Amino acid sequence: MTNASYALAGSTASTFSAVSQITAAASEAASASTATLANPATLVSAAASVSNASSQNGIFSWDNANVYFVLTDRFKDGDPSNNNAYGRPQRDATGKNIGTFHGGDLKGLTEKLREGYFTDLGTNVIWISAPYEQMHGWVGGGTGGDFAHYGYHGYYALDFSMMDRNMGTVSDMREFVDLAHSQGIRVVLDVVLNHPGYSTLQDMEDYNFGARNGIGASWTPGSGQNWHSFHDFIDYNNSSAWSSWWGSWVRAGVSGYENCGHSDLTQCVGDLPDFRTDVTSNVGLAPLLKTKWAKETVGHDAWIVPAASGLRKDLGIAPADHIIKMLASWVEEFGIDGFRADTAKHVELNRWKQLKNESSAALQRWRQNNPGKPGADWSDDFWMTGEVWGHGVGKSEYFNNGFDSVINFSFQDSNLNALEGIYADYASKINSDPSFNVLSYISSHDTRLYDRSSLIQAGSALLLLPGGVQTFYGDEAARAFGETGSDPQQGTRSSMNWNGLNQNVLSHWQKVGQFRSNHLSVGAGSHAKLADAPYTFKRTYSKNGIEDQVVVVMGASGTTNVNVSSAFSDGSTVRDAYTGNETVVSGGIATFTAHANGLILIEQTAESSLPAVSASPAGGNFKTETLTITLRVTKADGGKYTLDGSDPSAGIPFTDGTEITIGSDMEFDDSATLRLYAENGEGSSVQQYQYTKKDPDAGLTIYFKKPADWVAPHLYYYETSPKVSEPSWATAPAMTKVAGDWYSYKIEGVDSATLIFKDNSGKQNPGQNQAGLVRTADGWYDGVQWHESNPDEPGDIEEPNKVTVYYKQGYATPYIHYRPEGGTWTASPGIAMEASEVPGYSKYTVDIGSASRLEACFTDGQGNWDSNNMRNYFFNIGTWTYNGNGQIVSGPPLLAAAA
């Protein structure tokens, strides 16, 4: 949960002001960290009772995680008797339920597990909102204080050692986790180490802290007041009254407490009290906890986590040490498989490493103490992913401090009509590095819901994405945006639409989700494009004795011949998992009739009697002096190979497991084509792989045209791959003037990086709160678009290759999103087209350099796209008119009309 998603607990002159919280939210959103996280692929056998929706052959890997993130309170009410715990109403005094508890609980989650809802989706991980006890009362919600905001989402902790009664009992938690484990599903808890919840009137009254000046938990806004107005009554300067709150455990804007700081590690995020996680010595037990635990000696066993019962006292350790032990007790008690760490950048890295170490040890203790329980025989390590606001696909120091993954904020804004660049980029970065992964999403409780009318396309794009993926509850069923008040994030957290599930969307997500979960290669394999139209690609996994590969077609229609020769041998029976239809591969072709949604998901169901040959690694780039390749052959005594692309039937003999080494005689950017051949009494098989040697010391040279009102530009770069030392915002290196207004800087040793240009007067491009520019090749950036060479020196180009496109205005404000074929795409949504000399048409001209065609699609900039059914449009050099509905004619509009 980010600053922007916290309730705005406004006040008058107090430090709990709406203004300060808005500032904090803006600061958080603008701060783009460069961290990312992951760990080696861990492959374990799932429980015997796992359904077919679990991973391939019962194999689970966090690298192929299909995570379902659910705000438990908003999902399913399985026990109405706990709906009003601590006196919490389901509607506030003004009749609104924007920020109240709605009734969802652990019994509701368990009910849907029993129904098979999650296995039908191919879910193999459920991430639930924090189930520990939240603040009992409310704070003002939104900038306008127009609703009461409770801790229904789990981010306003009161007591880490105890179940929140709205969520259920310890027994409910145990039942939920055990049932999930029996279905091969891991359970991840949302955890907050950065802060507890706000001070509420209910908690002040219950635990005798703060100065309320005569008002209590029953206070509601009167005439001229809102839900923030209770602050007007609170004396935040009465240090004696506030000393019985959190004491030395937190910094906060009240008298007697250490002040909130201005750095990531000391600021009070959203004006919440900030745990002093930097303190390393004993400062005593928090007064609030001392008071609370003294009152709970009898009648509370149903909610106290047994493994935490011995922690409910002064342990003589620092506050963060105490909190970490309480969080780890949930792992030891229930067998929790992982944590999602909230506001990760606001806590010292060593504390996250400490949490990981203690939780890992706790998981091992649970497995040893519960040998007969589902999941006790699993061997995967405790897993952690982190929320670092604005983070994309890049690796950083978080991986050395406990994290296996980070949340990827960039995919939600990706152009889903240009998936090849995304898929290839993600697979090359994530699945080539066993210690790196991200968790991508299309909808989030902290940002927005994805366009509800585009969830079929978005579901395909997300669930077939390399790396870990996260479904936000209801994306699979088109849950609608809810009532939101003056806090735009609240509407993303509406109650699950059980009475109005969109069955078309749900069926689609079930099919693609199960396909992903059944095939390790989808999330964890290498990626290779096989065809442009319809878009076809292959995923291959070949590690740890596990072989898996699939072929996927997007944008197909009618009878479709798919070339699967690089994945499946002739004579193999293959199945389209989307329709269930089967066929036999013949001449390298599998023929299917595509579903109306245009997706074909090809998997092998029966092996061919023909021999099979393969190589590991299965092609790609390498940056070492030499590369060792393992050759495999089955159903034949041996095979033959060549390295020059020639006919392998007369090549060099090899047997299964033979290792060959290439690269010693190759220059940088040279490629070797490995072809394999084997035969038996049933026939022969051939496979082909390409390997390209890359310079490990190469880098990116970036050119930038300085705007007239800038001082000398600097280059801030992050998310580098391979990982190199990256500057901070303040130490971004100066660029060197090369010609005219052009400046350059070379980032040594990287293939790709995310860039922001800046100067020392506060100017930057892209602007604040905008995503950085991802670059994978040298280039010249004029502030609007990239060029392959200096666009101000046309003499350097033999013949300018220009494409002019006239666009009939189907969109009132059209954008063209394009790339020279094979080059780099413009940043989404593209470039706004200019009005042309022909009424009703817009126009744009692109110099495509050495490319032969322009590849493009069109958008209105508001999320609506015309991409030729995901096949995009192609324009040769010259002038063309696009008249809509896929019609492209030569010449400008007037000539087109005459024709």
Specify the biggest β-sheet. 8 strands, parallel, barrel
How many angstroms does the end-to-end distance come to? 58 Å
**How large a portion of the residues is in β-strands, by DSSP E?**
25-35%
User: How many E-type strands?
Assistant: 51
**Which residues sit in consecutive blocks of at least 5 with pLDDT less than 50?**
2-42, 45-56, 795-799, 895-899
Structural class: alpha+beta
Number of helices: 14
Shape: globular
Write down the Rg: 29 Å
**Average residue-wise pLDDT:** 88
SSE diagram, text form:
Layout: H1 18-30, E1 44-45, E2 59-60, E3 66-70, H2 106-114, H3 117-120, E4 125-128, E5 132-134, E6 139-141, E7 147-149, E8 157-163, H4 170-182, E9 186-191, H5 201-207, H6 239-242, E10 250-251, E11 274-275, H7 287-295, H8 319-334, E12 338-341, H9 349-369, E13 383-386, E14 405-408, H10 419-430, E15 438-441, H11 455-463, E16 468-472, H12 503-518, H13 520-524, E17 526-531, E18 535-543, E19 546-554, E20 559-563, E21 573-576, E22 582-584, E23 589-593, E24 600-606, E25 612-616, E26 620-622, E27 627-634, E28 639-642, E29 652-654, E30 659-662, E31 671-680, E32 683-693, E33 699-705, E34 714-721, E35 736-739, E36 742-748, E37 752-758, E38 764-765, E39 773-775, E40 779-781, E41 786-787, E42 802-808, E43 815-820, E44 831-832, E45 834-835, E46 841-847, E47 853-859, E48 865-866, E49 873-876, E50 878-882, E51 888-890, H14 893-898
Parallel strand pairs: 3-4, 3-16, 4-9, 9-12, 12-13, 13-14, 14-15, 15-16, 26-32, 33-40, 42-50
Antiparallel strand pairs: 1-2, 5-8, 6-7, 10-11, 17-18, 18-19, 19-24, 20-23, 21-22, 21-24, 25-27, 27-30, 28-29, 28-31, 31-32, 33-36, 34-37, 35-36, 37-38, 37-39, 40-41, 42-46, 43-44, 43-47, 45-46, 47-48, 47-49, 50-51
Helix pairs in contact: 2-4, 8-9, 11-12
